[in-house]
Amino acid sequence: MQRFSNKVVVVTGGAQGIGEATVKRFVKEGAQVAIIDYQDEMAQNLANKLRKEGKVTESYQCDVTNSEEVVQCFKEIHYKFGRIDVLVNNAGVTRDNLLFKMNENEWEIVIDTHLKGSFLCSREAQKYMVKQKSGKIVMLSSRSALGKRGQTNYAAAKAGIQGMTKTMAIELGPYGINVNAVAPGFIETEMTKSIAERTGVSYEDIKENVIKSNAIKRVGEPQDVASIIAFLASEEASYVTGQVIYVAGNVTN
Ligand code: NDP
């Protein structure tokens, strides 16, 4: 399928994990992709590798919580590619801790990365999308938005993402822009590995517990999320907006 021929896609946090799988999914379907990440070397390596395969990709080092950097980065992307059709607000971090031990820094970095980062990037992208009278924004929420021990900060951020998604969908719909979110459950990436490292619980035990407790008896892969992001960014989903799709291998409520 080449659903994204001539489309320009921006993926934040695109150097690894779900972001990397999303970048690869979009280029496979014909898109030109701008990769934004903190991790400049990893993003550059990914862009170089894809360019060698004949794909059009560029990497941009940018902290999505830094307003000046975000404004400059989107200007450069628009200058280079001439338009912005899709934004995937994927950059994320975790700083898990029980509430009574959580410090302000752990609260702020998580809230800032997800909420301020998605706000700043969406505000820049919509400038171009509104002029084009078309665009798709896909947000990354999480199963944790429904509550998870040790994730007061992350749950608040990911529940906030759902409110942002619905509100941006209302404001931007009249300009031909769809805004939706995916809410993954446990997906195997550096993020989930680092949670295991920090909590001291064995990664294999964490995965075993996930498999035991969910309906589809396996953990998630980044590609499981990338395919739903691509669907929501495609014309096939043009009458869907303000929705949250759980990609969690389980029933959620
Ligand atoms: P990864 O940690 O594997 O990748 C996230 C990338 O975003 C990293 O390269 C990270 O850099 C980068 N990043 C973090 N902060 C910033 C910033 N301020 N500016 C630019 N780049 C930044 O995460 P995942 O692939 O696992 O997660 C991707 C998204 O999916 C996140 O929003 C996450 O919350 C969400 N999600 C993930 C789940 C999972 O189980 N993996 C489940 C539910 C939701 P660095 O390494 O330096 O931090």
UniProtKB/TrEMBL annotation:
Signal peptide: none annotated. SUPFAM superfamilies: NAD(P)-binding Rossmann-fold domains. One of its GO terms (molecular function) is oxidoreductase activity. Transmembrane segments: none annotated. Keywords: Oxidoreductase. It comes from the Bacteria. Its EC number is 1.1.1.-. PANTHER family: 3-OXOACYL-[ACYL-CARRIER-PROTEIN] REDUCTASE, CHLOROPLASTIC, SHORT-CHAIN DEHYDROGENASES/REDUCTASES FAMILY MEMBER. Belongs to the short-chain dehydrogenases/reductases (SDR) family. NCBIfam families: PRK07231.1, PRK12826.1-2. This is SDR family NAD(P)-dependent oxidoreductase. The lineage of its organism: Bacteria, Bacillati, Bacillota, Bacilli, Bacillales.
